[in-house]
Specification:
186 residues, globular, 5 strands, alpha/beta, five-stranded parallel sheet
Length: 186
């Protein structure tokens, strides 16, 4: 049974799916819910390489403000579902967001971490990385990943890739049972 559920949110569609799952789990388990927003300081790193002088606090201000709005909306969503949620905003301290999430989970004593994920694969995952994957790999508590729904175009491409060019449906290893099933549907 889970008593302390941590859910990181950033306002993206996948993180909101994770939030909804965490709210449902907290309600079912009568657990405490902590909604976390991590201010990713690495977002401004490329700007710091420029010769001009930048005020880091000034640059992070709008990011923090947006994070606070995300937390307020998340707390309101939880309250609407009958779940009281505490909120927290922390800085990544120039490290990966996943490290900040894991540190907060340890510090707060989370029993489970619930996260939304984009479900990126291949080159996108390689180039963009995956905080959810790093949390999953390094967490000492269970992690529930909620995958974002695939866009319709992506689902269509995958379905088309499975259908042979001649339009006939394939059956696994020529199974007669599956052949009969497909003939019945045709």
């Amino acid at each position: 049974m889970y008593r302390r559920i941590l859910v990181p949110v950033d306002g993206s569609a996948p993180s909101l799916l994770g939030l909804k799952q965490a709210i449902g789990l907290a309600r079912d388990q009568h657990a405490r819910l902590r909604v976390l927003n991590v201010v990713d300081e690495l977002v401004i790193a490329p700007m710091l390489m420029e010769p001009a002088s930048f005020d880091v606090a000034e640059m992070l201000g709008p990011i923090r403000a947006e994070g606070r709005k995300v937390l307020e909306r998340a707390a309101a969503t939880a309250a609407k579902a009958g779940v009281k949620a505490e909120t927290a905003q922390i800085d990544s301290r120039a490290g990966p967001v996943s490290g900040a999430i894991l540190a907060d989970a340890r510090r707060w004593g989370a029993d489970v971490i619930v996260m939304g994920t984009h479900g990126r694969r291949g080159m996108n995952r390689l180039l963009l990385g995956s905080d959810a994957e790093r949390v999953l790999r390094d967490a000492t508590v269970p992690v529930l990943l909620v995958r974002a729904k695939q866009p319709a175009a992506r689902r269509t491409k995958r379905a088309a890739a499975r259908v042979p060019d001649n339009g006939k449906r394939r059956t696994p290893r020529g199974s007669r049972r599956s052949q009969a099933f497909f003939e019945r549907d045709a």
